[in-house]
Design a protein that fits this description.
mainly alpha; 15 helices
């Protein structure tokens, strides 16, 4: 467990005294460095785990691109749909983090295990919903396209396999929230990297038809996604079951049926987060489908940029998740001023990292794109789009971490409203008109 950073007495401020700059001006620079180091220690394993999870999509994109433009288009369109649903449901599952963290901070050990079991039920329900939703979208999306029958059938197979992955993916997210909220992010990291390593040979075999299997092309990436998520869920469950640290919470030593009140609490906290995730994810993923009539080059270029920026986005997301856990834990211990200070440290740390990523994307845009394709038109298009992605890093890091900080307080509806205005009214609609 990460040690406490401050004694209770340090944060004994009047609750009506909001301070300035999230109380950053009240404490020494050493205090800031200490809190930053604890956020990084908690965030780094989760960031590496998230990068590994996103890395599966990067592997899909790179390997499908190597098999031809048609396969890359299938992965681009299929991933756009899958990621929209997947990211939205991850947002709903994020409701588990503040609930578990606050109970852990309050010392309610037995309730932590019960909430973890209810979280698994919640993950199963959300996963089945995602499966049904994606299966129902296959026919309408194929009818929307005007590509060849072969490409449309390959896309349908990709979506089918990724739909089957949803229950395992959401069970994994329930276990992810459980381990992270109890300050044990390292197993999440190792399991996610195991899944990434597994995806490389499996993708190769399925895409190109090795070991006597039929050549599946881009659809093979969908089947790989299913296999990787099943592996992730089983491996993380096995670790939690065998790790002595989790024994006192008794997650797997007892059995319970779904509790209607608890499931409702998860949903009430989670649906606005899922709405926020959907608004943000759909801004990017729907663009791929809107660009489809403009040709395969535009779709492929957008997919390359999304693949790169999705990896970068794991930085603020991980800092934000760490802040959620730290804030929730502080609130559970009724250290409200400390929670406010953690929010300020997280935002400041995010701005510093955003400036680094902005510079990196600007300078390395051509080498990054060339990792995915040697098509000169796609390289030119993608490289120009990355410049826009570099510019929005400062504001994107800030809004992401601020949203996660608010989730530590279980404040979820106002961020969703802000995201609706920002991502759709100011983002998607003007972007569509300009394209």
């Amino acid at each position: 467990m990460l040690p406490f950073l401050f004694d209770d007495c340090v944060f004994r401020l009047p609750e009506n005294d909001c301070g300035m700059l999230f109380d950053l001006n009240r404490y020494s620079f050493n205090s800031f460095l200490n809190e930053s180091s604890y956020l990084v220690k908690l965030a780094l394993p989760m960031m590496l785990a998230s990068i590994a999870a996103v890395g599966v999509g990067v592997v899909d994109t790179v390997m499908a691109g190597g098999a031809g433009k048609e396969n890359l288009t299938v992965v681009a369109l299929g991933s756009a749909l899958f990621n929209t649903v997947f990211i939205t449901l991850i947002g709903v599952m994020t409701a588990l983090n503040p609930v578990i963290a606050q109970m852990h901070g309050a010392g309610e050990t037995t309730k932590v295990g019960e909430i973890g079991r209810q979280g698994l039920w919640f993950g199963l329900f959300i996963g089945v919903f995602g499966l049904i939703l994606m299966l129902g979208l296959i026919a309408p999306l194929k009818n929307y396209l005007t590509f060849s029958a072969h490409l449309e059938n390959m896309l349908g197979d990709f979506v089918f396999y990724t739909a089957l992955a949803m229950p395992a993916a959401m069970l994994h997210r329930a276990l992810h929230a459980y381990a992270a909220s109890l300050n044990r992010p390292n197993p999440i990291m190792w399991v996610s990297w195991g899944g990434l390593v597994l995806s490389i040979p499996v993708n190769y075999v399925l895409i190109y038809g090795k070991l006597g299997l039929p050549e599946m092309g881009g659809a093979g990436c969908g089947l790989t996604t299913l296999i990787v998520f099943i592996f992730n869920a089983i491996a993380l469950a096995f670790y939690i079951w065998r790790e002595p640290y989790f024994d006192k919470f008794a997650l797997f030593t007892q059995w319970c049926l779904p509790n209607k009140t608890t499931q409702k609490q998860f949903w009430q906290i989670g649906w606005p987060i899922g709405g926020s995730y959907f608004l943000e994810a759909s801004l990017f993923t729907s663009i791929v489908w809107l660009l489809a009539p403009l040709g395969e080059e535009n779709v492929s270029a957008q997919q390359v940029v999304m693949s790169i920026t999705s990896v970068i986005y794991m930085i603020p997301q991980s800092i934000g998740t760490a802040a959620t856990v730290r804030i929730g834990f502080s609130i559970g211990k009724r250290q409200f001023a400390r929670a406010r200070y953690v929010s300020g440290v997280g935002l400041t740390l995010g701005l510093s990292l955003a400036m680094c990523t902005m510079l990196f994307l600007s300078l390395a845009r051509f080498p990054l794109v060339q990792l995915y394709t040697d098509d000169q038109l796609i390289i030119a298009l993608a490289s120009s789009i990355i410049l826009f992605a570099a510019v929005f890093q400062l504001v994107d890091f800030t809004q992401c971490i601020a949203s996660y900080a608010l989730r530590g307080y279980k404040v979820t509806r106002m961020p969703m409203l802000i995201h609706a205005i920002a991502f759709w009214l100011c983002g998607l609609i003007p972007g569509y008109l300009l394209s």
